[in-house]
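Our platform keeps sequence and structure together, in a single record for each protein. Nothing more is needed to write down the fold, since each code stands for a local backbone conformation. An entry from our holdings is shown next, in its original layout:
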Amino acid sequence: MTEMVSPVKTREERLLDAAARLFARFGFDKTSVDDIARAAGVSKGAVYLHWPSKMRLFEAVLVREGLALLDDIVQRLDHDPLGGTLGSIYRHSIQALGSNPLLLAVYTVDAAVLGDYIRHQEPTVYAQRLLFGEEFVRRMQAANLIRADIEPEMTAYVMGVISFGLLSIVQLAPALRIPPLGALADALADLVERGFGTGDQHAAAAGKHAFRILVDETRELYAQRAGSTDGAQHR
């Protein structure tokens, strides 16, 4: 039996699709609710049936894109014979992020795209991103994919420095000739693997399993936050 798709859900997905395209192309400040409604083929009032403000719509887009990014990484790992090693997770994560212009802007704190949204965020938002990195490191250490002789905080910080440097250099030094992202991801994945990996390729399956658990836990976390937000809206 074919499952019936809710008209409301269909409209919501159209709005999220349109918002993701427009925010990535024109930025938060230059994209209006009218623009999004028009691109989705609905009225402006219909947007507010789902989200009380452009800010909340933008956050909903980021959540959806973030979860889609995780799915993309998992799929890339599944198609990689060595998927699950530290190097492969690092490489596929960079490549997946590089293919999503909106999330790339968020991770590099691109003011041209984020605009006024940045000024409404708590400074801890970016610190929390690092903390999630530490949890990733701990899980990978437990799977024997990351050396246990280096503190998780240090490993996560250094890996973050490498990632942000790679993703931000186009903005900071636009005159530099940037090699193809795929080649850069391969080179940096090798660097990370040599510096922090254990070299135990037999542990790749455990690493892939640990990463999938983190993805599932992230989904649950977002679902809980969304439920809490919905409840607050209706009180």
